[in-house]
Write a structure and sequence with these properties.
about 25% strand; elongated; 4-stranded antiparallel beta sheet; single chain; alpha+beta
């Protein structure tokens, strides 16, 4: 069973859906009204593109940043499947600060609160991974998840993450100590 620990930034995704929906409605209207054929074609293309954009936004809305399944913490920081890290390697979550990585923003001035995940330094195989730079970074045994693209990061969220990690780690340790039948 998968448990969601950190959601994506639903507010920004839903906000992006508003103009996309309006653009799709305008395209549909242009397509359906008795206008010159080339205008109807443009309207149809605009409507189709808007629908595809809405589907992509819905997919991102349903995608989480961190989930847990027995024995693993799953990080969604790239396209495709999550990066599944064995739970005993994840040590702690804490707040950090760094560049927001917003398109067109001055990266030296635009800062955001980030989530930092510390991994076990003994597990050097997990020290580095390739991730989408806009979503975060994974270097030297630390995962940074940009606050721009996840739910608002507060002390309560960090407390909940660390509490969930502690409970899941204890459950995994207890399960590994149970005798097999």
């Amino acid at each position: 069973m998968t448990e969601v620990w950190l959601h994506s930034n639903r507010r920004i995704l839903m906000l992006a859906m508003v103009p996309t929906t309006l653009l799709g409605a305008l395209g549909t209207l242009m397509f359906l009204l008795e206008l010159p054929t080339f205008v109807q074609i443009i309207g149809g293309v605009v409507a189709v593109v808007a629908c595809l954009l809405l589907l992509g936004l819905c997919q991102q809305l349903l995608r989480h940043r961190i989930t847990h399944r027995p024995g693993f913490v799953c990080f969604y920081l790239k396209s495709g499947k999550p990066i599944e890290v064995p739970i005993h390697i994840v040590e702690a979550f804490f707040l950090g600060q760094g560049p927001a990585h917003l398109p067109g923003a001055d990266q030296d001035r635009t800062k955001t609160v980030n989530l930092v995940v510390r991994l076990s330094q003994r597990e050097t195989d997990w020290a580095e991974r390739d991730v989408k730079e806009a979503l975060g970074s994974w270097k030297e045994g630390y995962i940074t998840i940009r606050g721009t693209w996840c739910e608002p990061l507060t002390k309560d969220v960090i407390h909940h993450l660390n509490s969930s990690l502690s409970q899941a780690s204890k459950a995994a340790a207890a399960e590994s100590k149970e005798p097999t039948q």
